[in-house]
């Protein structure tokens, strides 16, 4: 058994250690930038939450257009609607990157403080932070790579990105529920108080300005691939609008392996409607009444370009085979395979006056990489569903 003197010595030693720890913590706190704390984290977190929410909602829209649930409705007009939603999806995701970095910087001291686990509430908080940060980083990195069509992973991007969006949103909801009292208190205080002004380092207001300017700059250097008047500022966007006939190309004819079939003089487009079938040569398609429409082609990567398309209205082409036939329309490409070799166009899009089987682009014959001998172009649909190198069109039963 230790003597009373030994016990007293131990207590004094423990008290001395605790005092030194407290002094170190005070010294660290004094050296910590005043911008690190809930005042900045809460305000940046609100902006980050808005960006993530916009990204989530517009991402759902894009996914549902490509894989529509039975209840989903997407209008055929205005023709620029998908261009807007997918542009917002990519730009909001890009703007979230600097906001996330500032958010993590501002809360880093809290992330590494002891105890690591602590109470059940702290465990829930730490767990939600880990899932939230991990899922958001995953979404932003993979989404950014997708804009450049760079896939250094083995999983299928579309389904994985879609599933992780729900994980990120769920983790965000849990995190907000846990941190709401702290956020409300931090927002009620002034950004810079007397105590924070005494510390050396960047001020809270300056850090918020850095976050705002960085997010805006990130958005501007990407937005030009969707917003024409910002094109010259779009220095980091992977699509500038360059390509045959002024349009970018995601999938070339060589990559699709369609060159010989597309250039075959014996090419025919088979159209089936109401139990009747008719095969059209390109010359016969050109002999039908031609319609010109200015429509954007917008891709899931976020880029979009308006162009002048000329061709046969789909509803007129169907009527030439079987007047009165209606329903969704299935399109098949000359491609031998691929996820989007076959697409289905809802009836409301099929009967729209601007939905064309396009034969010309910007006043000249459709380039092979843009779908020669003919392709589908329709308002407010993703580029992957605007089937190129058409071989068959079939009106499905209404």
UniProtKB/TrEMBL annotation:
UniProt keyword annotations, A-Z: Membrane, Transmembrane, Transmembrane helix
Transmembrane segments: 44-66, 86-108, 129-151, 163-187, 208-230
Keyword Transmembrane: yes
Keyword Membrane set for record: yes
Superkingdom field: Bacteria
Any matching Pfam family: Oxidored_molyb
InterPro entries: OxRdtase_Mopterin-bd_dom, OxRdtase_Mopterin-bd_sf
Sequence ranges assigned to domain Oxidoreductase molybdopterin-binding in this UniProt record: 266-396
PANTHER family recorded: BLL0505 PROTEIN, PROTEIN-METHIONINE-SULFOXIDE REDUCTASE
Protein known as: Molybdopterin-dependent oxidoreductase
Species for this entry: Nocardia albiluteola
